[in-house]
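Students often ask what a holo structure prediction actually looks like on paper. The answer is less mysterious than it sounds. You provide the chain, you provide the ligand, and the output is a string of discrete structure tokens encoding the 3D arrangement of the protein together with zinc ion.
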Amino acid sequence: MKYYRCELHTHTTSSDGKMTPEELVDRALACGYDAIALTDHNTTAGVKRAVEEGRRRGLTVIPGIEWTTFWGHFAVTGGKSDVLWRDITPENVGEKIKRAQTLGDIVTIAHPRRMGYPLCSGCHCDYDIESISGADCYEVWSHYYPNEGVAARQQKEQWLSLLAEGHRLSVVYGYDWHNRDDVPPSYACTYVGSEGKDADSILRGVKSGATYISIGVEVECKAVSGGREYAIGSEIASEETEIELSCFRSEDYRSDKPTKLTRAEIVTELGKESFPIAFGEKIKAKATFERFCVVCIYGERKREEQLLAITGAFYRGGNG
Ligand SMILES: [Zn+2]
Ligand SMILES: [Zn+2]
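The corresponding structure tokens follow.
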């Protein structure tokens, strides 16, 4: 399995984006992505052009849509669902998510704690969190400066508390890409562990939970338990788990690169524990958990310690 650089939340001139579908593909290639999903607001009008341009130029383009409702937004990828955004209400949102999933789509809770009205109607998620907790992914980071500020902190806390309650949501970043961004702003990337670069393989990787989000850091992380190795997103039966972790500089990352790493933090429903880590160094750490285990990587960036990467969860369960 290889980790691919993906951006699963983008817009074009088919909704309120500034790039045509062809320009989006061009910029995505220039930025070093392996795959993007096009998720225009409540329309798939640009999908065909983007997919065709991607095929011609060697970029995987995943069909999608952003359900943009008054109470909150969802990036829905796969292009298989017949759910209409205008039929979604706070009462039926859980059923609509389930229907989209049954038809083969992946549903992501988009930017749930971002500032809402009057800046952006429905950007802030007002749905009852329990009713949307059956979604596949959670945008823990979003848009520009994704790891800084109140929304990032609140989203991480809400995602971790959903995991602690036993829900399983893949971690994703949503660039929510609207502009050309010739001068790269502070942005992040979702890495997806997948058997291949095609749309179906990438979506299977997202669904399986094999993701991490990052600003300038490439992460190799696996769990070893009972003599077996587990990828991010796996279920682990045994209580005894060792996390193996190495981090490297992402050469593709262009804005405000991290200068050094400071620590890796293992987060479970029982608490947190930190270990020193440096670029290129392999660390092994024991983890004990009943529900989930996530790894957060911290380092120095813009002359302060920042959270630079978050892995998806390892879960307890199954037969190993
Ligand atoms: Zn949105
Ligand atoms: Zn959006």
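Residues 215-316 form a domain with the Immunoglobulin-like fold (CATH 2.60.40).
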